Amino acid sequence: MNKVSTVILSEEFATAEILKLYAAEIDNLDIFSISDCKSVYEKLSKESDVSLLIADLTSNKKDKLELILKITKECKNCKVIALSDNPSVELIIEIMRAGAKEFIPIPVIKKEFIESINKLITPTTENRTNAKCKIISVYSNKGGIGKTSLASNLALELAKITKENVALIDMNFQMGDITTFLDLKPSFNISYMLENLDKINETFLLSTLERYKKTSLYVLADPPYFKQADNIQPKHIVKLFNTLKDTFSYIIVDAESGFNGKNIAVLDNSDIILLVTVANLPALRNTQRCLELFEKLGYDREKTKIIVNRYMENDEIKDDDIEKVLQKDIYWKIPNNYFAIMSAINKGIPASDFNDTTNIAQSYKALAQYISDNAYKINMAEKFENILNNN
Prior knowledge:
Number of domains: 2
Low-confidence stretches: 124-130
Shape: globular
Mean pLDDT: 86
Strand content: 15-25%
Distance between the termini: 36 Å
Largest sheet: 8 strands, mixed
Number of strands: 13
Oligomer: single chain
CATH superfamily of the largest domain: P-loop containing nucleotide triphosphate hydrolases
Number of helices: 17
CATH topology of the largest domain: Rossmann fold
Structural class: alpha/beta
């Protein structure tokens, strides 16, 4: 087995020596200690096999963030672990945006450091954890609200921003549109996947699900025939989610309208429900009824987020009116841009591929950034809590 070329970047002599000492306990690492960003890039850019950058951001933070971003974009086989003696949530978000896969606070705990390295250089299913995976269902009990547009655009922007694997699942078993919206002709669909759950692993998933262009977005289409949907049971959906969690950081579900058993299974097992509405009275009444039912189902109030689609500043029904009727804050507003969204749909491309500068494309991108930032905050808060509890 080839050794993994591992570069430790730190101007702090003591930190670099400790990191070298800990890393030396892993047999298959070829360790180099380098103290300037230019030399690190020259070293790692020549590596074609799996490599590792361990970057201490205690000093020269800006230059090192730029280096991490450059490395993760240009050196696809290089994994990055970032460290800092000032682990603020804002810094961690910057680090993750740049493309680092792991963050470790200084002083470094040896066990945590070694576990992080092993997780990155041996990316098998067994080494993964599904704890960080977020299942986000886009839902409306009323058709024609724009939930499929939201689900497909959000999923793509999350894949672009986080550089993590994102699954987009079409749970509209009778009339799914995801493949039309993204102009895909997948070889496999959800029925095939459910029939082969016992055989599924990461390699199977990433080779079987339809990948959108060269992104990290993978699409699981609805069944092509109505009759196939009859065999799908709620327990199959739960098992599918549990299987996908090991491979994907985000699972975006375009949920079917209605409250049948399958859809309840989807919503029950979602971390977040994006409840989509528009600013008119029938839609808001329908949304109100959904919230009442969610309460009866025992969902935490924070689980459901209100998305106002086709939003216009001069609407007769204002933000305050919506929040008063629903007794809940608006989570996000997607602007009304009929020309841009319909042109994108008719071409079978996401809004950002049609025109990245439109207000609707920018809104999808900002929503994805907002969701991913909050996910990082939650994950890192849990990590810090564990660190404090262990010390």
